[in-house]
């Protein structure tokens, strides 16, 4: 008798008991009293599969927001042990500085052998890492990073100058296909990739001159190969997001998916991401060991301000390098693509912005930060775009402490996964009237801004909020001001739509545009 004849029925019995009978049994036994909450789907109380399905549909935070509204329910059960909150009162309790909740198990599952600043759960360990990196992110240093951002901006503009077209003829509303010479999302990703690698690692990849994302990756054994930086990062995020929402079965589902050639290919495309980070980190470490003195984030992982070394293990350094270059590129690229799209679609706002920027700039090509950092309408446009479409829309999962926690005045039992999506918060009509409309002017009245700010959470909030917020504003402010000062833009057509897929961040498809110079002149060269 073959092993298979015994193993198959055993496997079938296992699947039936663990995936069917136990969940149903636990659902009715209801040990945590979660059955009183509305279910996202009729099966959500028993299994994570409805959520996995929702995720595969593309924009889960928007769907969750709609479900809260449809069911008129501020608390939704989105999995057997998982609650989504739909009322802004929950933000402070789940994410605020004094929350007793920690990052949920998800972060440990996707984290590497050395937890990094982004996925580490333990509070003291996180504080230690955060303190080390904060030195590099402090506002004082922002000015030091400006020249890196300005230089990278000039390199992008040089590439755009080369691809400029003739002005759109007055008798046309849509550009000729041949004039859509720039895929903006592609180029702006090359910009944010280049910017974060320069700021964090003093590494100039050259992707802006190449026009594509081909870079060197390196295996642990030292061998190197060429790979596509952005594609690897993007596919890694895309693949992970499909299976992560059943934490316990993530590795199993990821393995099983490889039965299908399509998924085998996706995982294969994702694999080099690890080796890209490794190459970037090891190359920078070698420069450090060779005594090169560089001003970047990496230095603050190696030594304190008095030059006293921390002597961290390489695994820990590698983890935090990965966290910063992972978190620091596609998010800002999404924000910039989004704000440009919205401005092209709202010519009156584009004009207001241009007038504001033109008034402070002379013949500079790259906007000096000092001149544009406090322009209120510029900042309003950036914030309004991140409000409508938060680049990280996701309900960032947190876990209640073993003894339970009060959330929104409601006692939630221990070890429960809780979250509230930024998308839901940003689309709450009691906070942001006409939430679907792009209205930068809503941010212009200082008292209104003050009222809305606690509920404006694209960078999350509290102790685990984004550490790169100010760097991102630095990049976005300089880039947007420089772009609208120098160019005019057109989308393919009025009914053209941006494609999105929500992984951890809200991944975007292509945005082909036509651009031309506002005042003809000599192209930049680089
Ligand atoms: C528009 C751009 C950005 C957005 C929307 C954004 C959003 C976020 C959000 C929502 C979190 C919390 C994640 C969670 O709770 O799981 C976060 C954390 C983080 N972000 Fe950003 N981010 C942006 C840009 C950046 C940049 C430019 C950097 C690096 C320079 C960066 C580095 C980080 C790091 C290291 C963390 C983890 C912080 C911690 O746990 O202490 N981010 N970001
Ligand atoms: C638009 O105007 C140009 C001349 O300015 C002319 O050559 C062209 O045929 C016109 N196109 C259309 C679609 O009317
Ligand atoms: C990133 O993933 C999304 C979702 O699959 C896809 O639409 C987009 O084209 C991808 N971009 C790149 C550069 O791979
Ligand atoms: C809900 O939380 C449990 C663990 O508490 C986890 O296994 C599961 O994957 C989570 N599901 C979702 C949809 O977040
Ligand atoms: C750097 O570390 C040394 C040794 O731990 C300490 O004496 C010094 O005060 C630290 N300097 C700063 C600026 O933190
Ligand atoms: C929460 O987890 C802790 C440690 O894993 C366990 O001792 C406790 O019984 C759990 N509490 C609940 C309510 O599940
Ligand atoms: C960002 O800058 C503001 C001042 O504009 C400062 O209060 C804040 O602490 C800075 N945030 C981070 C994360 O560095």
UniProtKB/TrEMBL annotation:
<keyword id="KW-0812">Transmembrane</keyword>
<feature type="transmembrane region" description="Helical">
    <location>
        <begin position="6"/>
        <end position="28"/>
    </location>
</feature>
<dbReference type="InterPro" id="IPR017972">
    <property type="entry name" value="Cyt_P450_CS"/>
</dbReference>
<keyword id="KW-0408">Iron</keyword>
<dbReference type="Pfam" id="PF00067">
    <property type="entry name" value="p450"/>
</dbReference>
<dbReference type="InterPro" id="IPR002401">
    <property type="entry name" value="Cyt_P450_E_grp-I"/>
</dbReference>
<dbReference type="InterPro" id="IPR001128">
    <property type="entry name" value="Cyt_P450"/>
</dbReference>
<dbReference type="InterPro" id="IPR050121">
    <property type="entry name" value="Cytochrome_P450_monoxygenase"/>
</dbReference>
<keyword id="KW-0472">Membrane</keyword>
<dbReference type="InterPro" id="IPR036396">
    <property type="entry name" value="Cyt_P450_sf"/>
</dbReference>
<keyword id="KW-0503">Monooxygenase</keyword>
<keyword id="KW-0560">Oxidoreductase</keyword>
<protein>
    <submittedName>
        <fullName>Cytochrome P450</fullName>
    </submittedName>
</protein>
<keyword id="KW-1133">Transmembrane helix</keyword>
<comment type="similarity">
    <text>Belongs to the cytochrome P450 family.</text>
</comment>
<keyword id="KW-0349">Heme</keyword>
<keyword id="KW-0479">Metal-binding</keyword>
């Amino acid at each position: 008798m073959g092993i298979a004849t015994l193993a198959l029925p055993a496997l079938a019995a296992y699947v039936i008991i663990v995936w069917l009978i136990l969940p149903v049994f636990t659902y009715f036994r209801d040990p945590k009293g979660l059955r009183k909450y509305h279910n996202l789907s009729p099966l959500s109380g028993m299994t994570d599969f409805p959520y996995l399905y929702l995720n595969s549909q593309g924009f889960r935070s928007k769907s969750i927001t709609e479900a809260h509204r449809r069911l008129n329910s501020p608390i939704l059960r989105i999995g057997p042990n998982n609650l989504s909150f739909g009322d802004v009162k929950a933000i402070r309790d789940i994410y605020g500085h004094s929350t007793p909740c920690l990052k949920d198990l998800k972060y440990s599952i996707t984290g590497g052998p050395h937890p990094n600043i982004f996925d580490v759960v333990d509070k003291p360990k996180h504080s230690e890492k955060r303190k080390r990196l904060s030195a590099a992110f402090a506002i004082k240093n922002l000015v030091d990073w400006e020249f890196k951002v300005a230089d990278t901006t000039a390199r992008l503009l040089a590439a755009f100058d080369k691809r400029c077209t003739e002005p759109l003829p007055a008798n046309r509303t849509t550009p000729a296909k041949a004039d859509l010479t720039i895929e903006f999302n592609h180029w702006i990703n090359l910009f944010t990739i280049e910017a974060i690698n320069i700021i964090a690692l003093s590494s100039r990849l050259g992707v802006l001159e190449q026009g594509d994302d081909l870079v060197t990756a390196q295996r642990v054994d030292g061998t190197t190969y060429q790979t596509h930086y952005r594609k690897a990062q993007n596919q890694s995020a895309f693949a992970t997001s499909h299976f992560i929402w059943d934490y316990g079965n993530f590795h199993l589902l990821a393995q099983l998916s490889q039965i299908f050639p399509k998924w085998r290919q996706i995982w294969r495309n994702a694999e080099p991401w690890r080796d890209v980070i490794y190459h970037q980190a090891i190359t920078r470490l070698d420069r450090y060991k060779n005594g090169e003195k560089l001003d970047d984030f990496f230095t603050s992982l190696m030594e304190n301000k008095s030059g006293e070394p921390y002597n961290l293990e390489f695994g820990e350094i590698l983890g935090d390098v990965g966290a910063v270059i992972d978190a620091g590129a596609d998010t800002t690229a999404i924000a910039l693509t989004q704000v440009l799209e919205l401005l092209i679609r709202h010519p009156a706002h584009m004009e207001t912005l241009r007038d504001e920027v033109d008034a402070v700039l002379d013949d500079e090509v790259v906007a000096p930060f000092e001149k544009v950092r406090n322009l209120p309408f510029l900042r309003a446009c950036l914030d309004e775009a991140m409000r409508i479409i938060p680049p990280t829309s996701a309900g960032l999962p947190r876990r209640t402490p073993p003894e339970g926690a009060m959330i929104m005045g409601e006692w939630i039992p221990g070890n429960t996964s809780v979250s509230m999506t930024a998308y839901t918060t940003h689309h709450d009509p009691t906070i942001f009237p006409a939430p679907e409309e792009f209205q930068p002017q809503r941010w212009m009245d200082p008292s209104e801004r003050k009222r809305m700010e606690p509920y404006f959470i694209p960078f999350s909030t509290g102790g685990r909020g984004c550490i790169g917020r100010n760097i991102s504003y630095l990049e976005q402010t300089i880039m947007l001001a420089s772009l609208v000062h120098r160019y005019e833009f057109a989308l393919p057509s009025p009914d053209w739509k941006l494609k999105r897929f929500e992984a951890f961040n809200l991944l975007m498809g292509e945005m082909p545009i036509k651009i031309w110079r506002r005042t003809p002149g000599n192209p930049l060269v680089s």
